[in-house]
From TrEMBL:
It is found in: Membrane. The keyword Transmembrane helix applies. It holds the Pfam family STE3. It is a multi-pass membrane protein. The chain crosses the membrane at residues 5-23, 35-53, 114-131, 160-182, 203-227, 272-290. GO terms for biological process: pheromone-dependent signal transduction involved in conjugation with cellular fusion. It comes from the Eukaryota. GO terms for molecular function: mating-type a-factor pheromone receptor activity. Its main location: membrane. The gene is STE3. Belongs to the G-protein coupled receptor 4 family. This is Mating pheromone receptor a1.
């Protein structure tokens, strides 16, 4: 589980997100920027964690893990919310409900997308505290893992929103695709009349990214939640004091204990859930890191880099110069073992199917 490929893929995902992001920054496309943000703030810790806890499961960076686990809770809502913002925007453009979008319209749309793509995930991060039975868990090769008291409030406050947003995105993506196919001949004029920064080519890539992301993430999230509900009965949420009785605890688990004591399906689910972010990052790169505008940007960066390190001027030998062949430089080469898996109170020592 979580072998070297996982480590390498997470580090590559950081570059997959950064390289094609400049056009989206210039276009101020809020939906894709929030998508980049939530992918980046999750793959970066995954890359760091996979090295720091490669052969250990001890408590190394307590405050860091507090932050990282909250960002993971936000990311599980933030990426689906960003996809919903994106498909909603594409459907609005394809429907051509408004002939012209002025700056006021764009500002209102950005505020709405920021509220949904950033504001709501941060709200869920705060609400997660209600069902956070202890601080977090540490798993060898994975690092910091979110802790959730498995109960009905956990489902309603934290777990369900990614599925809800992806289902809503399905509707908007289907409508946007249908409208695009119905108006494909005059679609360029529709985009021009709306003064949109999105060209036909970018529209197609954005809708394709949304569809592939939905097709990939939605079945996985549905299976994870259903499996948890079937195999882990919801525990009663007695009161705040009962749930948070051991809030300061941090549990740690070695990878060999995970492989021996956890069912095969649960182990697979646990690992797949951590591949969601690097896969989402790679999808973004495949759709936007290899396009004409991205290649043009890479060339500009190459020219700028070349200007920073100009070639040194050729030295004209003089009578006092040392011949190259006689130069001195010419000769130089260039959860601890005794922790029981699961608990009476349901804290995420049952890691594999947690958030």
């Amino acid at each position: 589980m979580f072998g070297p490929v996982f480590v390498v893929f997470n580090f590559l995902s950081i570059f997959f997100l950064i390289l094609p992001s400049s056009w989206h920054l210039r276009a101020r496309n809020t939906a894709t920027l929030t998508y980049i943000f939530w992918c980046l703030v999750n793959v970066l810790p995954l890359a760091i964690n996979s090295l720091v806890w490669r052969h250990r499961s001890d408590i190394t960076a307590p405050i860091y893990c507090d932050i990282v686990t909250k960002l993971r809770v936000g990311g599980e809502v933030g990426i689906p919310a960003s996809i919903l913002c994106l498909t909603r925007q594409l459907e609005s453009i394809a429907a051509a409900r408004q002939a012209y979008f002025n700056e006021k319209d764009r500002r209102r749309r950005r505020i709405e997308e920021l509220a949904l793509g950033l504001g709501f995930p941060f709200l869920v991060m705060i609400l997660h505290t209600v069902v956070q039975g202890h601080r977090y868990d540490i798993v060898e090769r994975v690092g910091c893992v979110v802790a959730v008291y498995w109960s009905l409030p956990a489902v309603l406050l934290v777990q369900i929103w990614g599925i809800v947003f992806l289902l809503a995105s399905c509707v908007y993506a289907a409508l946007a695709a249908r409208l695009f196919l119905a108006r494909r001949k005059q679609f360029a004029s529709v985009l021009e009349s709306s003064k949109s920064a999105i060209s036909t080519s970018r529209f197609v890539r954005l809708i394709a990214l949304s569809v592939v992301e939905i097709a990939f993430a939605l079945p996985i999230l549905l299976f994870l939640r259903l499996y948890s509900l079937i195999h882990e009965p919801l525990l009663p949420y007695v009161n705040w004091a009962f749930v948070h009785e051991n809030f300061g605890n941090i549990y740690h688990t070695r990878i060999d204990m995970l492989e021996v004591n956890v069912p095969q399906v649960a182990k697979a689910m646990f690992e797949i859930s951590y591949w969601l972010y690097p896969v989402s990052s790679t999808l973004f790169f495949l759709f936007f890191g290899l396009g004409d505008e991205a290649i043009s940007t890479y060339r500009e960066w190459g020219k700028a880099l070349k200007n920073l390190f100009p070639e040194s001027a050729e030295v004209v030998p003089t009578e006092s110069s040392i011949p190259y062949k006689q130069s001195l430089f010419a000769t130089l080469p260039i959860v601890s073992l005794d922790q029981k898996w699961g608990s009476e109170k349901g804290d995420l020592k049952r890691l594999p199917w947690s958030s």
